[in-house]
């Protein structure tokens, strides 16, 4: 479908589904899984029907088509009773909830890799709500192509994340952030790892990157992930299956558990870990090889995550991940860990992102990129700093994202720095010509700067891009104000959080005295 048509379908579907939820007794999280399950069934039917004619034309009475024939084409086998079109045509008196649960059981039985990952409990939905949902989604297989289904699924994930607030953000990373990470990381082939994988969006975008370069993702990539929350693991597995992928997703707590024996094992690491987590039991981590630069004394998990990503890389591996801005300037033991990481020669690119890209955090964030393969090359002693805080599309008052040409442009700045060919399929030619008229990398005020290790040391081992890129000449006051305001607001937010904690402790202590 055209982008405009697809956008209309997505918004219409969400508005209708959300209206049904508003008129039911369910919370967004209770409603999320059954809705995504119906989208899954619609998508599976769509892919099945697309290849069915070819598969059956090669079958015979003696050798009928089997589930294996469909799997050979990266398609799930869909039994008759698992088709949404069949469910919506059930006779008036039939138990629709039971039939939908039976449909889930049947498709899982036909495809063992789906065992126990699809939502159940449709009998718990109000009959009228379930019937309306079936009517809403049943026509989709004849209206949308496979790629469009992927967008529908991602759109529903993002909308549920927005409704669920902080909890939703733990499983969903905005599409444009993931796409930018993937374009800079360039995961052409190998083992991909995400130890905080949420709903698996990083893996899906890796696969799309491979396919955009005319290769088969299922042949080129091995996908391994860890997710702490039980309820989110099925979301990730559904998301992979929805995009014709398979992977090994384990439920575990990545602070204390290492189910994939990650040290040195991966070509690519991608993640959006939870920021500034406290109360981690660091006594359980002593001697763990995933923390080669030592444990931070601060009660903060950021540099535990960063070390995990570094340690998981093979000698030529690359990592790209989202991190709180504060990690780039944190002092004391965290500064010492950051210094060791910089001295290892593997810090490659740092990208500052503006506020309002995430549902859970309004503050700006930084994307970190590590590259062990640059050790021993001319780039070993340098880091590219990119300030993208002034590059974005304003979606609404509270949300921003990147357009396709902005993502391509930022990735092309990195390609120029690495001496690679640029890509212009998404229309970044104008931005490239404006900033790099000779087609070669140069430092651009307010946008990008290559800094040497000596320059970074002179800045107190800071990895904050704003310290290096300077400001655009024509916008000095505006950019300086934004940078200062951003830093002050982040500090204010941190102090406010600490103040809330202290206030609760004081309240508890005073109340204890009064009660006595």
Automatic annotation (TrEMBL):
It is an enzyme of class 2 (transferase). PANTHER family: TYPE I RESTRICTION ENZYME HINDI METHYLASE SUBUNIT, TYPE I RESTRICTION ENZYME HINDVIIP M PROTEIN-RELATED. GO terms for molecular function: DNA binding; N-methyltransferase activity; site-specific DNA-methyltransferase (adenine-specific) activity. This is site-specific DNA-methyltransferase (adenine-specific). Its EC number is 2.1.1.72. Residues 146-472 form the DNA methylase adenine-specific domain. The keyword S-adenosyl-L-methionine applies. InterPro entries: D12N6_MeTrfase_N (IPR022749), DNA_methylase_A-5 (IPR003356), SAM-dependent_MTases_sf (IPR029063), T1MK-like_N_sf (IPR038333), Type-I_RE_MTase_Subunit (IPR052916). It catalyses: a 2'-deoxyadenosine in DNA + S-adenosyl-L-methionine = an N(6)-methyl-2'-deoxyadenosine in DNA + S-adenosyl-L-homocysteine + H(+). It comes from Kocuria varians. Belongs to the N(4)/N(6)-methyltransferase family. Pfam families: HsdM_N, N6_Mtase. Residues 10-131 form the N6 adenine-specific DNA methyltransferase N-terminal domain. Keywords: Methyltransferase, Restriction system, S-adenosyl-L-methionine, Transferase. GO terms for biological process: DNA restriction-modification system; methylation.
């Amino acid at each position: 479908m055209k982008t405009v048509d697809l956008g209309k379908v997505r918004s219409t579907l969400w508005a209708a589904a959300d209206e049904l939820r508003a008129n039911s007794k369910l919370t967004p999280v209770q409603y999320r899984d059954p809705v995504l399950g119906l989208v899954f069934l619609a998508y599976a039917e769509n892919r099945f029907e697309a290849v069915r004619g070819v598969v059956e034309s090669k079958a015979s009475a003696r050798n009928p088509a089997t589930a294996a024939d469909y799997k050979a084409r990266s398609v799930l086998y869909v039994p008759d009773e698992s088709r949404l079109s069949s469910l919506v045509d059930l006779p008036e008196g039939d138990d629709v909830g039971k039939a939908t649960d039976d449909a889930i059981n049947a498709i899982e039985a036909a495809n063992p890799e789906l065992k126990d990952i699809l939502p159940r409990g449709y009998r718990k939905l109000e009959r009228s709500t379930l019937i309306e949902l079936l009517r809403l989604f049943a026509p989709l297989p004849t209206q949308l192509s496979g790629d469009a289904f992927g967008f529908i699924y991602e759109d529903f994930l993002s909308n549920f994340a927005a409704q669920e607030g902080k909890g939703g953000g733990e499983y969903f990373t905005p599409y444009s952030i993931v796409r930018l990470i993937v374009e800079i990381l360039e995961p052409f082939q190998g083992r991909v790892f995400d130890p905080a994988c949420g709903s698996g969006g990083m893996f899906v975008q890796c696969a799309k990157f491979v396919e955009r370069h005319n290769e088969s993702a299922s042949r080129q990539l091995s996908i391994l992930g860890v997710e702490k929350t039980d309820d989110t693991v099925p979301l990730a597995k559904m998301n992979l299956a929805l995009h014709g992928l398979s992977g090994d997703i384990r439920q575990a707590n990545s602070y204390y558990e290492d189910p994939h024996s990650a040290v040195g094992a991966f070509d690519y690491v991608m993640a959006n870990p939870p920021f500034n987590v406290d109360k981690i039991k660091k006594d359980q981590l002593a001697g763990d090889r995933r923390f080669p630069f030592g444990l931070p004394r601060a009660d903060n998990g950021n540099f535990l995550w960063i070390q995990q990503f570094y340690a998981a890389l093979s000698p030529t591996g690359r990592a790209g991940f989202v991190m709180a801005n504060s990690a780039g300037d944190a002092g004391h033991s965290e500064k010492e860990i950051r210094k060791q990481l910089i001295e290892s020669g593997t810090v490659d690119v740092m990208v500052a992102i503006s506020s309002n890209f995430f549902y859970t955090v309004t503050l700006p964030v930084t994307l970190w990129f590590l590259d062990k393969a640059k050790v021993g090359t001319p780039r070993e002693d340098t880091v590219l700093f990119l300030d993208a805080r002034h590059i974005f599309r304003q979606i609404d008052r509270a949300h921003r994202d990147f357009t396709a040409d902005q993502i391509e442009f930022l990735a092309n700045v990195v390609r120029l720095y690495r001496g690679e060919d640029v890509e212009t399929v998404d229309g970044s030619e104008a931005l490239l010509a404006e900033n790099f008229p000779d087609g070669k990398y140069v430092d651009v005020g307010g946008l990008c700067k290559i800094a040497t290790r000596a320059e970074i040391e002179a800045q107190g081992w800071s990895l904050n891009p704003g310290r290096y890129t300077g400001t655009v000449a024509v916008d000095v006051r505006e950019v300086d104000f934004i940078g200062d305001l951003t830093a002050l607001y982040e500090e204010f937010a941190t102090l406010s959080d600490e103040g809330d904690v202290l206030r609760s402790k004081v309240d508890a202590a005073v109340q204890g005295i009064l009660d006595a």
